[in-house]
Amino acid sequence: MNYVVMGIDRVGKNTFVDKVLRDLDPDIQEIHLSKPPENVDPLMFTKAEYSEYFMKLKENDHLVYNRGHIDEFVYGPLYREQDTYWLKIFEQEMSDCMDRTIFILLVSDNVNVMEDDGNSLDYSRRQEEQDLFIRNFQESPMRNKVIIRTIDRNGYRLISSIKEDLVREMVKITEKNKNLKR
Questions:
Q1: pLDDT tens column, 78-89
Q2: Angle 69-80/85-94 helices, nearest 10 degrees?
């Protein structure tokens, strides 16, 4: 199984990969997608990166992407004024090949609990970013999608509770996929 973990900055993606996914699948190999470097055409960089992303997910097992294509649907238009229509087409074309991948969106019930680490593009826009993540995630044609709440009204949730949520959702996905094959 492959995993793609997405969400706004400081929602707990690194902790989720290290403490939840590695516990469930110790053989996973993490790949961290990044923003385009300063000296490179951002559109060319992004197209090449997501082409490789979809191919690796299609052809491999035990991968976990820290960030995914939904990130580009949010950050590309919001901060780089990039149209992501090409990625929507690519996503649609690849959606039937992603049966071995679970797409995980991490969300917060209270973005004000999160602390700014200075690495966010615009920390004051985190609620807007999260709303865009949720909308794009829900519109995505990918089948194996789960939304996991990592932060409640009081702060970060216990790892054990987050892991229970993920396992429960994975069971639902497994059952749904069995029914589709019948």
A1: 988 889 999 999
A2: 170
Contact predicate 135/78, CB 8 Å: no
H/E element, 63: strand 63-66
pTM flag (> 0.70): yes
Buried (b) or exposed (e) across 6-24, using 16+ Cβ within 10 A?
bbbbbbbbeebbeebbeee
Spatial separation of the C-alpha atoms in residues 50 and 39, rounded to whole Å: 19
Collect all residues with Cβ–Cβ distance below 8 Å to 109 and sequence separation of at least 6: 149, 151, 152, 153
Contact 171, 102 (CB under 8 A): no
> Length of the chain in residues, anyone?
182
pLDDT tens digits, 52-75: 999 999 999 999 999 999 999 999
pLDDT band, residue 27 (cuts 50/70/90): very high
Whole-number Å distance between alpha carbons of 125 and 74: 11
Break the chain down into helix, strand, coil percent, rounded to 5: 55, 15, 30
Question: Is residue 6 within 8 Å of 136, Cβ to Cβ?
Answer: no
